[in-house]
Design goal:
Blueprint (H helix, E strand, L loop, with lengths): L21 H5 L7 E3 L2 H10 L3 E6 L4 H11 L2 H10 L1 E6 L4 H15 L6 E5 L5 E5 L13 H14 L1 H19 L12 H15 L16 H14 L2 H16 L13 E2 L7 E2 L2 E2 H18 L2 H14 L13 E2 L2 E2 L2 E2 L7 H7 L2 H10 E4 L14 E4 L3 H7 L4 H19 L7 E2 L2 E2 H17 L3 H17 L8 E5 L2 E5 L2 H17 L3 H18 L30 H16 L2 H15 L10 H8 L23 E8 L8 E10 L4 E3 L12 E5 L3 E7 L5 E2 L2 E10 L8 E6 L1 E3 L2 E2 L3 E6 L1
Parallel strand pairs: 1-3, 2-3
Antiparallel strand pairs: 2-4, 4-5, 6-7, 8-9, 9-14, 10-11, 12-13, 15-16, 16-17, 18-19, 19-24, 20-23, 20-26, 21-25, 22-24, 25-28, 26-27
Helix pairs in contact: 4-6, 5-7, 6-7, 8-23, 9-10, 9-11, 9-23, 11-12, 11-17, 17-18, 17-19, 18-19, 19-20, 19-21, 21-22, 21-23, 22-23
Length: 744
Amino acid sequence: MVMQPVERNPIFTNLLVNSPSPYLRQHAHNPVFWYPWGKDALDRAKAENKPIFLSIGYSSCYWCHVMEREVFENVSIAALMNQSFVNIKVDREEHPEIDDIYMIARQLLKQEGGWPNNVFLTPALEPFYAGGTYAADESTNRPAFPRLLEWINHTWETNRDEALSVAKKLTQDMRAYLLYRAPKQPDKADIAQESEKLFNLYTRYYDARAGGFFQAPKFPHECYLQFLLGYYEATGKTPALDMVTHSLHKMAAGGLQDHVGCGFHRYAIDKEWYVPHFEKMLYNQAQLARLYTDAARITGNPYFADLAKSILDFVGGPLTSVGGAFYVAIDAESDGIEGAHYAWSAKELDALLTPDDLTFLTTFYAMADIPQFPGHKHVDGQVLIARKPLDLAARERNIPYAQLAAVSAGLMNKMLEIRNKRPAPIIDDKILVGWNGLMIDAFAHAGRIFNRPSYTARAREALDFILERAVDNNGNLKRVYAGGHAYLEATLDDYAFLIKGIISLWRATPDVELLGAAKSLAVRVEELFSDNGQGYFYTQSSERTLLRLKSGDDSAIPNSNAVYLHNLIDLYDITQDSAYLVRAKILAGFFLNGNEKISVEWATMMHAAMRLNPSPSKGMATNNPAIAASDDIVTVSATLSPADPAPGAICEVIITLNIKDGWHINANRIDQPFLIATQIDVQGEGVEVLDITYPEAANYKGKIVISASVRLLDGKRLPIKIMARFQPCQGASCYVVEDRVVLL
């Protein structure tokens, strides 16, 4: 179902009613007098000296829908908002630069993230308060929005200097995270050594049991895995490849993959990948299709090839426009219930499937429960998961993989016919140039690797759509195509990702026209975004934004400076024009020389830099991601009892968390879906975890002891890896999640 204008309450109409953005149109009939981001709203805030209430979200965001229904549809709350604030609604997919700026503000203020992101700004656009999902009252243990509005307004009217002081200090602090600056006297980086450090860092946070990195919630982290594939190809170190293949197997077996309709959901709420957050994003499909294609190329495993093709075939259906370009997302909910379209009940399957189908389904698949949370409409049913990846299941049962895959595909098609009769989630039919570039790259790359001309043709069709409809008369890209026209200045993402797609398409079908398009766009990158050799800015200017961004960090999508470094290397490889190589070396040097803050989010930058110097080296990484609680807030230690166990003995791993006075961490059992529970995992070769016992409490304070009962099958005590995940909180404010690893 393609997005249509929402007509919930025609009594109210605000300035979003004619927006081409489906997300903004969802709010067009709220009683809140919303402005889109732009001159009119900002000028009014300055003229009336009112604070700005900025609410950022996107169309497939479940909690954005919840807050709209509970809060922004409430007439009395809207009256408070309209009286005291200039209210601006932003689609983060239209304005990623605004989203990035004010997400950092929220992380620094509240040490938390996510959407919706609700931020209060001065008329000068400086933030002084931020938060996430609020409720109309306190009945669901979420903060009550009316009380917050009254407090913010009272502070602005009676103690404005304090708000302005907070805003000035916060804005200054934000610059360090949003505008990368190289050291004044940088040392030349040893790329081989730094890539080895990054590999060791991923090894440290790798989940050897369930694949992926860290614990719940579990994200695919495609950039990490793509780096590890590149690292394996550069060094031949099989542990890097093993981490990738194990993770790809586990993700595909869990509910993260839509086994019935294909494609992947955005992330899993549990560490085993069983239960997803059900939205489907184009950028995930693009990156995972590329990953599974490369894994198939390197390993020769037909299962990985089938998974890549299933993603691409899925995108070629509901996410492809009539003109061939790709839509951005499919919603997580239908009929107001998250996951309703995807869940199955045993009773339903018994009634609809034959006995043979049920036997096959229960042999190779299982059902996972969806957790219930207060105030969250619970879906009727469970999530379909594979008991084991199909290639491993076929091997265990001595069945040809192709035979098992064919039978499974037939059954999934039957279930899809049943599921298609249910109300369908809404599709956000915006076309984002950058995300289309990633998808063009995935189709073109797979077309070449799998010798599928249809994939290459689909990539070319999407590219032609973008070049014909999203490039203005001056050769500049627009970021968005929706409502029959292109609008908004393109960001560095859009240029870098589209050039990446064009290069992959050229490699599949060499064409002078394609190479010319890539080179022309590269010229525009230099003209619009270059900072005199000091990397590339994210936007063309900082007009009507707080500041101009420049970063080397990956997020849910690859970093655009890093992708453009790949592009420069590719353009040199194709044209042998040394100017591209010189520019590539300068760009890599700016971000990597003397950089002591390299963390897990530098995967794409390091992957690209390795292509300039791929030789292996040795090293050990100790640094952590940037915005995190101080290490002295929570310290983690562990002991083994008995210290020298006999082979096969059952032992206790005692994990002690010492929490600083005035702080707490969430308990293992939580009743709010936006909090992160404390989790412990124990891993190691020959280590069998029998049970983990957590203290019973609403939250944990002071000294907490968690006991894990394990059997050491071979009697060896070393190495045992304890992975701890927790969320430090102070009062009602919680920091970003911390991941600690202790080795015994």
